[in-house]
Design brief:
The chain contains no helices and 11 strands. By secondary structure, the chain is mainly beta.
Length: 123
């Protein structure tokens, strides 16, 4: 079993920045061999892809966040980070990290999920 715990959410003004963290743990869980994804879900909307970082360190982002968000990972700490800059009101959502051995952009394919952390951007 794999546990993912997100932190770092909060309230920020438009144009500001936040950094989310996702700590992974689990018996026999080899963090370095898993791909890590970030998703978000706003009220009344479906969960949407934000970006991922592969086990090799390559990244891919949704068009809506490209150039503003950056994903990084620290395999020594079993942690993945989501740096969010130039935040907009439409970025308001619950943000989730997820992990799977297969690299994908669809939420349904990820095997393990965190509980989510709320990000609210005030305009």
């Amino acid at each position: 079993q794999v546990q993912l715990v997100e932190s770092g959410g909060g309230l920020v003004q438009a144009g500001g920045s936040l950094r989310l963290s996702c700590a992974a743990s689990g018996r026999s869980f080899s963090f370095a061999t898993y791909n890590m994804g970030w998703f978000r879900q706003a009220p009344g909307k479906e969960r949407e892809f934000v970006g991922y970082i592969s086990r090799g360190g390559s990244t891919y982002y949704a068009d809506s966040v490209k150039g503003r968000f950056t994903i990084s990972r620290d395999n020594a700490k079993n942690t993945v980070l989501l740096q969010m800059n130039s935040l907009k009101s439409e970025d308001t959502a619950v943000y989730y990290c997820a992990t799977d051995r297969v690299l994908r952009v669809t939420a349904s394919g990820y095997e393990y999920w965190g509980q989510g952390t709320q990000v609210t951007v005030s305009s």
